Amino acid sequence: MKRIVVVGGGAGGLELVTKLGHKLGKRGQAEVILVDRSRTHIWKPLLHEVATGSLDVNTDGINYRAHSARHYYQYQLGTMVGLNAAEKAIELDSLVDEDGHEILPVRTLSYDILVMAVGSVSNDFSTPGVKDNCYFLDSHKQAERFQQALLNQFLRVHQSSNSDDLLKLAIVGGGATGVELAAELNHVADLLKAYGMTNMSSKKMEITLIEAGDRILPALPERIALLARKELSRLGVKVSENTRIVKASESGFLTAEENAIDADLMVWAAGVKAPDFVSNIEGFETNRANQILVKQNLQSTEFDSIYVIGDCCACELETGRFVPPRAQSAHQMASLVSENIVATFTDKPLKTFTYNDHGSLVNLSRYSTVGSLMGNLSNKSMFVEGRIARFVYLSLYRMHQIAIHGWIKALLIMAVKRISKAVKPKMKLH
User: Fold this and answer.
1) Bigger pLDDT: 174 or 393?
2) In 3D, which of 362, 383, 376 has the Cα closest to residue 317?
């Protein structure tokens, strides 16, 4: 029996093993294995909500082991650190507990077909002090770590004897993550009054959003960026464009113009790259962002037995640019690779990947949602905002839930979520 190993349980990886589990694993045609360094999946575009406590991983996350038992694939907890393409095996790092005790030694896992879906991490561009002083939102563990620090800072300001005391936050990166985080922080700060912190509100925060480029949301149409900027300014967020950070310290950031930006909490959300270990694997062709170059059928340029999907995939478009690292890209890639892997079992030809840009949406918490729809599905995009945009934004997540749970369970989960809103706190308070 052939063994298919998928490394990375993000949006694309989890959808892929779910599809392959039902198409091949259920019928005993292949052994499908998911490897991930975490026990829980959360949709990456929602990590800013985990960071603010609007979303609780314990209730909204998906346990890989439980999910695998229902969808005919296997799950292994582990971190990939190496690849032996000649032997068709990956190396997994040793697994240790919180006290440093070894649970599992370094081990290898063989494969017939390997899918790299290891996602991306923030790119600090080797800026001094960033790794030691900034929070990142690359995983739910990092987001939860920030949320704990945020709660502590809320408590400090709430109980401060100085009425002028403010919570200063600085976010580097004016992409979707930075913009959405800034808006969500305002929302949760105002929620605290309902939970006993009567001295805390969004007016007790000073948020600075820093972007090195000439405008925030550079990947989106200018009209959307201008609307988002206007909304953030209305919320009191200071947007600093054309501002390059050259150093981070315990007290804040230093700009290229040698201006200091003081901050109690700092978040780095500027730029993405594939994990560093990818570029160290011998044999892969990678670009400057550590992404693995692929052929048009999403096989690695060097190894036909290895496919690459999601943020770590460098798939070149006709324009010369690469497919953008978005959830919709991972979803489309997972669908194609699923079809191509199944095709190898019936000796059918492999299909080539065509990226369909369905547009982009930015959710500014409960305040607004703006974006464009259709993308290259038509000759021009359609601008949307308000309730329609919010509905479409939520629909993207619902589509992901349907892809990994099926229609019936996904609808049940949506119903339970609505009911739980009536009895649960509106934000995680622990």
Assistant:
1) 174
2) 376
